[in-house]
Prior knowledge:
Elements: H1 22-70, H2 77-94, H3 107-119, H4 129-132, H5 145-167, H6 173-198, H7 205-215, E1 218-221, H8 231-237, E2 247-250
Antiparallel strand pairs: 1-2
Helix pairs in contact: 2-3
Amino acid sequence: MQTHDEELLGFLLLFNTAELTTERKNAKIQLVNALVGSLSVAIETQYLLQEQKNLLNAFIELIAGAIDAKSAYTGGHCQRVPEITKMLAKAAVDVQDGPFADFTLSENEWEELHIACWLHDCGKITTPEFVVDKATKLELIYDRIHEIRMRFEVLKREKEIHSLRNRLPDSDDLAELQLAEEFRQLDEDFYFIAQCNVGGEFLSDEALARIRQIANYQWTRTLDDTAGISQAEWARKTRQAAPELPVQEAMLADKEEHIIYRDSKNH
Length: 267
């Protein structure tokens, strides 16, 4: 038996001990040739289907491997999810009582689960790089004009403080102690936020409550935050009317400008 390109598939051996006439023998040979041809097509089709599945799986795993390799911070996430999912599914199938007592998966369903596991993160292919590749929660592609603007804000505040201090005849020890305590609290709050930025996936309810409390801290912005920025960021910031300066800003806030809308052509 051979494939269409004459690759050997196997042999078909038939034995007939009866004496046959030449005509019957030729008829038998024609029947065997037809049978061999049908068997060859059936076997080759099975091989081709399996090779097609292998190619599809290899391509899927290649995509998942490329996604993992693309970001050093995911730690082989796409490689681990299929193994963990299959372990969970097998445990659910093996259980004999409880809500999963009647749960079972057919061979086709196992195959579907396998493909779904490997493809679960394929959307990252079209996800912007600065969203996928993050070492910390707050890391992103950042226009440093914001940092420079904040330095100017701090410099202006320092000059204002220096001027006010020069107007005071004598410093108030109680006020100094109160200021030192406020500085200490701000330092603790900052280092708490910094720790949350590099922490794991889970935050306790207490940590979330503290973040919300810190988010309500107010500071005064006196400079236009749309000056010197890119056209794309300007378009996001100007979705809403700009407030009159100076304006009180929250320490942490979700804003409309933070939302990156996907182009309709990519849906």
